Amino acid sequence: MAFQLEKLLRPHISQIKPYSSARDEYSGKVGVFLDANENPYGSLTNEPFNRYPDPYQLEIKEKLASLKEVEIGQIFLGNGSDEAIDLLMRAFCNPGKDNIILLPPTYGMYEVSASINDIEIKRVNLTADFQLKVEEILAAVDEFTKVIFICSPNNPSGNKMDRNAIREVLQKFEGLVVVDEAYIDFSDEPSFIHELGKYSNLLVMQTFSKAWGLANLRIGMAFASTEIIRILNLIKPPYNISGLTQQKVLESLDQADRIDDLVKNVLSERIFLEDELDKLHFVLHVFPSHANFLLVKMDQARKIYEYLIHDMIIVRDRSKVVLCEDCLRISVGTREENIQLIEALNRYEPIIQNL
Ligand SMILES: *Cc1c(COP(=O)(O)O)cnc(C)c1O
């Protein structure tokens, strides 16, 4: 494998000296801290929010390192996975020159982030059953291709990608391959984190926003070689994860053994929802899901979407997305919410029959 990080990196990035924050220069916890222009009297809420947080979130990373079986230096934490996506663009892709490859239908933020950074996007659609077209992906690669984004389980289709297809891309592409595992906790699929040792061009993204139920706190994870992670740490804003977020994530990690139960609830609700949706005559297909949502093909999806909005039930209209024509993406809710959805959809039937 001819992956060379130096070659992939934008030239000026390797010259950058990181911002040295006050908290970098002295890492002890006790002392008289007169170095960061904080308010020594505290904050109005009586909690110690007057001090800047740990810029490298080491307490969280220690727990994550043992949970995920990686080195601390292989972990990057971002203000949501979205921050990691943006940092990857800025580290590796020269605006107006380099390109990335996306595999539609896929997560929208890759495109948004590339566009903001003026990075060209090449697209290779997935197959009709949402798998990688490996040969076409590799054929789309040119000398300016820096990153390929693979989402597995995929948003919005919900399926997992064939592992050997991902491995083939990792082996044959000399740039960075991002495997976005935002939904991995809902799948029986092992994480690609276990393959980091085999592929130096692999970066795996996960998030606290989905299974962990912490979307509001904004924290995402990236796992890769220490060399790649060092770059992300170099260019990130110094205090990108707030102290409050770090505190709540630590509390959650201390109860990591309870995640399985949270996930089990979602999975059994997913089965319930799938069964109920299948009974509706205007539902043409419920795609098999390895995530916490269902992609559902319906007769006149857009109309049903609008009808549901009118009933104050909000799902995601994917009906104009390539390969998702006439599809809505429905997150698995609580039993109560799912029943509300199904009852609303049942009320929709007579309207159709009256036409
Ligand atoms: C929800 C989601 C994320 C998570 O983004 P955060 O910024 O961490 O909330 C990442 N990737 C995909 C594919 C997602 O659907």
TrEMBL record:
Pfam families: Aminotran_1_2 (PF00155). Residues 43-345 form the Aminotransferase class I/classII large domain. The modification N6-(pyridoxal phosphate)lysine is found at residue 210. Pathway: Amino-acid biosynthesis; L-histidine biosynthesis; L-histidine from 5-phospho-alpha-D-ribose 1-diphosphate: step 7/9. The lineage of its organism: Bacteria, Pseudomonadati, Bacteroidota, Cytophagia, Cytophagales. Homodimer. It catalyses: L-histidinol phosphate + 2-oxoglutarate = 3-(imidazol-4-yl)-2-oxopropyl phosphate + L-glutamate. It comes from Fontibacter flavus. Belongs to the class-II pyridoxal-phosphate-dependent aminotransferase family. Histidinol-phosphate aminotransferase subfamily. The keyword Methyltransferase does not apply. Its cofactor is pyridoxal 5'-phosphate. Its EC number is 2.6.1.9. This is Histidinol-phosphate aminotransferase.
